């Protein structure tokens, strides 16, 4: 951030009085511009035992597979965001069942909230941000071509529980250990 969104004056990074970490503070109007993590809401949408995945038409991870998920919009609930993203990315209508997994990704300041859900019908197609959309069971999931660690973790949990038909609620922290090669560690609460 270089300029204040309130008055367009320059900002500087400093610790405001009474605070304990640096913030962007406007040099002119003194507005403190707090920055906080973004919530990504998404859906594990099942149809006859298979899960809907989208192949990304956008960066990052163009061409790799992901669950329908995206940043919440202002004024939305997490459930609305998950349903909307499924409609936008997979042109699929879904009914949510329950929250399934919350993942903290502190290295990119994101929190994922993934819901279990059921497709209302077998109608889906690639939305603007997808190259293709398809249903996968555990054996057909493109495990080596998944876009994000959070997707791999979620699918492992889900397909692990699917045979028993009983689903938990998971909270995990995904930590990036290195950039090259890309390595992560996931810890569950
Ligand atoms: Zn200002």
Automatic annotation (TrEMBL):
PROSITE patterns: NUDIX, NUDIX_BOX. Transmembrane segments: none annotated. InterPro entries: NUDIX_hydrolase-like_dom_sf, NUDIX_hydrolase_CS, NUDIX_hydrolase_dom, Nudix_N. GO terms for molecular function: hydrolase activity. Coiled coil: none annotated. SUPFAM superfamilies: Nudix. Its cofactor is Mg(2+). The keyword Repressor does not apply. It comes from the Bacteria. Keywords: Hydrolase. The keyword Signal does not apply. Residues 34-159 form the Nudix hydrolase domain. This is NUDIX domain-containing protein. It comes from Thiohalobacter thiocyanaticus.
């Amino acid at each position: 951030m270089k300029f204040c969104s309130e008055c367009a004056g320059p900002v500087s990074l400093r610790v405001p009085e009474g605070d304990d970490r640096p913030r962007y503070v406007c040099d002119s109007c003194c507005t403190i511009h707090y920055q906080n993590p973004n919530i990504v809401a998404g859906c594990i949408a099942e149809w006859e035992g298979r899960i809907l995945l989208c192949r990304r038409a956008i960066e990052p991870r163009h061409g790799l597979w992901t669950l329908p998920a995206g940043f919440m919009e202002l004024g939305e609930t997490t459930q609305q965001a998950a349903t909307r993203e499924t409609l936008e990315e997979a042109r699929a209508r879904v009914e949510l069942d329950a929250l399934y997994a919350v993942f903290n990704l502190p290295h990119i300041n994101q929190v994922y909230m993934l819901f279990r859900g059921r497709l209302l019908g077998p109608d889906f197609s690639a939305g603007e941000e997808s190259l293709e959309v398809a249903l996968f069971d555990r054996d057909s999931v493109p495990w080596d071509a998944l876009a994000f660690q959070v997707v791999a973790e979620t699918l492992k949990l889900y397909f692990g529980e699917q045979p028993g038909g009983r689903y938990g609620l998971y909270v995990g922290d995904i930590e990036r250990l290195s950039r090259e090669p890309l390595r992560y560690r996931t810890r569950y609460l």
